Amino acid sequence: MPLVSDVVSFVPDLPTYLAFCAAAVALILTPGPDTMYVLARGIQSRDAGVRSAFGVSTGVLFHTTAAALGLAALLRAAPAAYRIVKYAGAVYLVYLGVQAIRNDEFGAAGERGGAAANATGSFRRGVLVNALNPKVALFFLAFLPGFAGSGPDAAVRMLFLGATYAALTAVYLSGVAVASGRVGDALSSATTTSRLSWLGGGAMITLGLALAVD
């Protein structure tokens, strides 16, 4: 019995959990940099898009852990640290966009690079695209405590809620990846995929610049 009560103390009550899930779904469905990145990768290939989706979800777990440990509070309290992370994320997004255009990642050249390598890189990039966005860190710092409550088990409840958010994110973004992969299959001519490299790369560059100036 003590073991059961310990487990229950780590989990929010059912009404609170359902309210959290409803709020999480509404937020996840709001388009943002993560959705745009997965969409671009999904057009490249369905596998790359799905791996990107799981990469983004892993980034969510990173931010959840940071919020639970109080690391996200440091970004809010230290403007210099916040700016460093923000500009690092912006530079990384711009870098990804430039690389997509230079290497024609959405076209024939990208296919010659090898599907396995592209898929592995998509997961890693998905993690970094999410992890290097300080706004996500501050969002979870503000969002999770309201549902996790207070007390000695609050940090564990935050981790549980963050894992739920990551799972919901993975499901939704995987759906985005599969849908965009079908679009990519339909637009598979060499000329079209070359244009998609410019479109996808340009989208990532735009997101990076928007993050830098916001």
Q: Which terms would index this structure?
A:
214 residues; mainly alpha; single chain; LeuE-type; transmembrane; cell membrane; membrane; 12 helices; LysE family translocator; globular
What does this structure look like?
The chain is an all-alpha fold and 214 residues long. The chain has one domain (2-213). It contains 12 helices and no strands. The N and C termini lie far apart (51 Å). Residues 1-7 and 108-117 have low confidence and may be disordered. Keywords: Cell membrane, Membrane, Transmembrane, Transmembrane helix. InterPro entries: LeuE-type (IPR001123). It is a multi-pass membrane protein. The chain crosses the membrane at residues 17-40, 52-74, 127-148, 154-175, 196-213.
Indicate the percent of residues in helices: over 70%
The figure for the number of domains is 1
Q: Write down the Rg.
A: 19 Å
Low-pLDDT windows of residues? 1-7, 108-117
Question: Distance N terminus to C terminus?
Answer: 51 Å
Number of strands: 0
Task: Give the number of helices.
Answer: 12
Q: Structural class, from helix and strand content? A: mainly alpha
Mean pLDDT: 79
Residues in β-strands, percent: under 5%
The biggest beta sheet reads:
none
Query: Quaternary status of these chains?
Result: single chain
The shape, in one word, is globular
User: What order do the helices and strands follow?
Assistant: HHHHHHHHHHHH
